[in-house]
């Protein structure tokens, strides 16, 4: 696939859900910042179309996600969402997610990540209106299914409207995510099978209101980011 310049996607989850967010003292730990964009040549890696199919839907794929808060593992639903899992595996193997901050955190609802612009120190990103709108340079269609339900630990794609999937995804961090079962617009492609305590730790990150003035504060006060994702195939 051909790479191209930065292409911004509006990949935001629906707002206005009645969910409680936490708010604690701000952290200024510069040494815990995600790798800066200038230090990572892959930070704005872009392509002009989705990846060709490279997974075998009949095999089992486990994504081991290493973050600065600890590690967790996701069983990927290759049979139920092959295009979505293929996309995730491709981006993970390309190290696309390395260093990306969880830019949206709502306790007992979701933690969201995958915008390649969200690198560096969160306090330097707080007033950037484009944070939360980035992607890999392409979009692909939904793979909606009634087989899985939104619940704690579930992993699904974030989007702005039907068939606008890219690189951003969210993980259900509490019972609040079950409200999405009344509007199943997001492709479910995996579930956390180990390390749910790490997801909970990320969900407990203190947050504040971001530049978009969302009803529920969700922008992290601390740097919580993916170090790398390793795909296990068996």
From TrEMBL:
It catalyses: [protein]-peptidylproline (omega=180) = [protein]-peptidylproline (omega=0). Its EC number is 5.2.1.8. InterPro entries: Cyclophilin-like_dom_sf (IPR029000), Cyclophilin-type_PPIase_dom (IPR002130), Cyclophilin_A-like (IPR044666). Pfam families: Pro_isomerase. It comes from the Bacteria. One of its GO terms (molecular function) is peptidyl-prolyl cis-trans isomerase activity. Residues 1-23 form the signal peptide. Keywords: Isomerase, Rotamase, Signal. PROSITE patterns: CSA_PPIASE_2 (PS50072), PROKAR_LIPOPROTEIN (PS51257). The keyword Signal applies. Residues 59-231 form the PPIase cyclophilin-type domain. Belongs to the cyclophilin-type PPIase family. PPIases accelerate the folding of proteins. It catalyzes the cis-trans isomerization of proline imidic peptide bonds in oligopeptides. This is Peptidyl-prolyl cis-trans isomerase.
């Amino acid at each position: 696939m051909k790479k191209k310049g930065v292409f911004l996607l509006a990949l935001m989850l629906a707002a206005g859900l009645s969910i409680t967010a936490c708010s604690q003292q701000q952290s200024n730990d510069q040494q815990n910042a995600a790798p800066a964009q200038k230090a990572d040549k892959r930070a704005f890696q872009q392509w002009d179309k989705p990846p060709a199919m490279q997974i075998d839907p009949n095999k089992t794929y486990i994504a081991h996600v290493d973050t600065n808060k600890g590690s967790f593992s996701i069983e990927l639903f290759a049979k139920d969402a092959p295009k979505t899992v293929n996309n995730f595996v491709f981006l993970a193997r390309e190290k696309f997610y390395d260093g990306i901050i969880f830019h949206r955190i709502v306790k007992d609802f979701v933690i969201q990540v995958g915008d390649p612009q969200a690198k560096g120190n969160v306090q330097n990103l707080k007033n950037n209106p484009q944070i939360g709108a980035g992607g890999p340079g392409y979009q692909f269609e939904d793979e909606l299914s009634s087989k899985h339900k939104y619940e704690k630990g579930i992993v699904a794609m974030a989007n702005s409207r039907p068939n606008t999937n890219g690189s951003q995804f969210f993980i259900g961090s509490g019972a609040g995510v079950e409200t999405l079962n009344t509007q199943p617009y997001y492709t479910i492609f995996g579930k956390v099978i180990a390390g749910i305590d790490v997801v909970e730790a990320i969900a407990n990150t203190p947050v504040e209101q971001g530049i978009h003035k969302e009803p529920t504060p969700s922008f992290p006060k601390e740097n919580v980011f993916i170090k790398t994702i390793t795909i296990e195939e068996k």
